[in-house]
Structures
1.
Amino acid sequence: MIGEKVIWVATLPSTNDFVKENWQRLLHGTVVVAEYQTAGKGRYNRYWHSPEGGLWFSILFKPRKQIKPTFFTKICSVAIVKALSLTEVDTRIKWPNDIYCEGKKLAGILSESVFEENTLKAVIVGIGINVNNTIPQELRDKAISLHEISTKVYDTRIILRLLLKYINQLLKRYSNEPEALTRIWKGLLIQKEGQMITFKLNDVIKTGKIVKIDDEKIILEVENQQMQLSSLEILEPRLI
Ligand code: BTN
């Protein structure tokens, strides 16, 4: 069970680093939460602002069978959307796994994998949710917190419990049917196949039609040619 063991500490540099350094001695399903992180990490080596009031935690998955690590990331992003909908906050996933509300980022996921001799040994899924924390001025046009959306003050422990409940439910339901999970995840994405999106390529803003979306890439048709897009380049989705 995910969350059977929860290690809740006041502070750590990064919960992901802690789990990555200790994955061998920690049990499958261990969750490590820090009330604040001093060196929170985002994707692409970005700094992740993690003051008190947010929910910053990492989950250790030790898969018993070989499965794509992105399976666990999708489980978590879908679980976040479902759990937050119970708190009456309507969110969507910005490809591949950012959680958005009102056009701003509410939560992010950083997945890291441990392979030994080509065998997947562990997946560490780090989740950061802006809950009651204040968003710094310089991020206010891009990021939002649950408190800002609803003016409520949330109990991060209740949100964590709810999330873990959904993660366990989704794991049980989709472990043998990962394609069905992908369909659910795709349904929650802001970006849709057939949609026009704008993106930046070598500092030039371009528009293209989404031909196909999967875990690792988005294929676009731009000026009658197909090209692959990475998440860094997406600016905004725009419906035709
Ligand atoms: C992103 O969107 O760039 C991913 C952000 C992930 C942040 C979380 S907070 C808990 C865990 N520990 C970290 O250092 N990072 C992840």
2.
Amino acid sequence: MDKGCIFVISGTSGVGKSTVLAKVMEKRKDLIFSVSATTRAPRPGEKEGVDYYFVTQEQFRKMIDQDEFLEYDAHMNNSYGTPKAQVEEKRKKGHVILDIDPNGAYQVRTSCPEAVLIFIAPPSMEELERRLRGRGDTSPEQMELRLHRARWELAQQEKYDYVVVNNQVDACVDEILKIIEEKAN
Ligand code: 5GP
């Protein structure tokens, strides 16, 4: 293999993206997850260097200044970015999966036009709202913020190469695996 593919996966909070991604990666061992840097605090169970590189605002700013990001963006009051060198290194070994938001996806598209952009969509906005409210772990203000963000993200799906609806997890996983198979082989 000359250089692995870049697969960008986006999907709004509550769409079930982590579950889908974990299953996709379980099925294809040649996929390597791109670990982002973020200024957000780690959640329980999240591991440094596995889920994210947890950095301070100053460290993040320095990484921007030193042109270390393939893409970066700020949303929900935190900054997130994909370290460029890491992606290039991982592409030497396999296909790289980036779990990033639509703004990041457009930046990747600009610098790597060959990247494959996949959007995971909920069956409907109503269903997404039901799933988000069902979690019951957020304040009303935080919920409004999430819903506002979700509406914006859903409006971006037409800019992706593929939109896969997560109505049923295994079907969604199979659909993504089919896309990867088509592009990566
Ligand atoms: P969370 O804080 O829940 O882990 O992630 C929130 C959102 O940030 C998700 O939609 C995720 O895709 C996005 N995200 C994670 N890493 C990156 C990154 O490196 N760049 C961009 N643009 N978005 C990211």
